[in-house]
Amino acid sequence: MLALGLVLNTVGIGLFCWLIFALAVYALPFFVAVSAGMAAFHSGAGILGAPLVGIVAGCVTLAIGQTAFAIARFPILRAAIAAAFAVPAAIAGYYVVFAMSQLGMPLLAWREVFACLGAVFIGGTAWTRLAVFAEPRPLDSGGVVRGAPPQAVLSAATRDG
Description:
Strand content: under 5%
Helix content: over 70%
Mean pLDDT: 83
Distance between the termini: 70 Å
Structural class: mainly alpha
Order of helices and strands: HHHHH
Number of helices: 5
Shape: globular
């Protein structure tokens, strides 16, 4: 029974850590959704209208962020957009890792070290996932070299002999 408890605890903690890393990129849209939903509720949108406003605001934030990141040409602008998504994820990661480290670590210094490392890794994960979501831009010239003779596109290779 003790072995089963240890295995289930390990699986549960591993699943929780995977969930944190998988949802890291959604920290900013979640914050926007909660803020918009609360503002809508306090302005009289009601129990059904406030969550709808929040969901729409969060989805729009994520879509605008991904689109802006994908079409931005300047690396500084892309870095600023990615940082807007990565910083809230890093802050959330810091507090989650700090809370989890309180379970097994009595020293405050080590909890801070692990929380800072968790913030860096989770923020980096959010940065990377935002870059993965963005489709690469096609070549501006379509990949055609000017002045080169046209080449036939072969759909299948043939073999003589």
